[in-house]
UniProtKB/TrEMBL annotation:
UniProt protein name: Tab2/Atab2 family RNA-binding protein
Domain RNA-binding protein Tab2/Atab2 C-terminal: 133-289
Pfam families xref list: Tab2-like_C, Tab2-like_N
Residues annotated as domain RNA-binding protein Tab2-like N-terminal: 4-114
Amino acid sequence: MKTIWELDFYSRPILDENKKKIWEILICETPSSVATDPDSLFRYSRFCSSSKVNSGELRDAILEAMEQSQSRPNKIRFFRRQMNNMIVKACKDLAIPSAPSRRTLTLYQWMQQRENEVYPQEAGYDAKAASSPSVQYESAIAQPLPDAILGQKWALVSLEAQAFAEMPEWEIAFQESFPLSPFGLSQTTPIPGIILFSSRAVPMAGWMSGLELGCVKVMENREDRSKNPRLLLETGVNESWILANLNTSQLLKEGESFEQAKKNSQGIHFLAIQANPESESFAGFWLMQDLS
């Protein structure tokens, strides 16, 4: 099983003796399934001064993290585009693939916890600086899916949260998920999702598995605002793909219900791919969270 890490390297709301912001490197392990114990995931943190913000410092931190974890990641994900060059270089120096991604959910939860519980306890904590947003995503113009992997049909559905306890037993060719326990959802909370049906289900799932899937959302048509909203798949940190056009009143209603269900489930939802509605297996299944 592949080991994936999530990484952030950025300034924190803590000032040093020269009134310069302290920087921090955070590294954590991505859970491999819904059955992963969140407390078992590897975590690493390291403060550094603003004068040491460079790829060499980051490379050394990743090496130290590998020594502590006694493992080597197959890939490192990061969300902060302004640190792209530095992170990519540090990872390249260590021959570790890196990817800008919205699938840094464990990292995001950890950052929130540190902002609330850790940084305020540090000498030099600057409450005013802590009020600024730290995680932002901007979507690019939506692209059509490649013709070769277009689905023939699709459906908006939902599963109760308790159903995902059995996900490790499902037959799935390509997948990624995360434990739901940290979110405090009730067992009966509906988790909304979309199922795409395609005669080329496995190639479609294989192609999507390389996209760093972020979330599915209903968005207005930015290229032509006179047209109906669309169902989009957002990937990487700013890619967007058109899954479906909501071109009837019924589809618009379903889209609205999908977005409301996402709000009720803290943004958690899923994307699935099957050969047909009668299939008992999945070519692809991804659990996601809309952080927006």
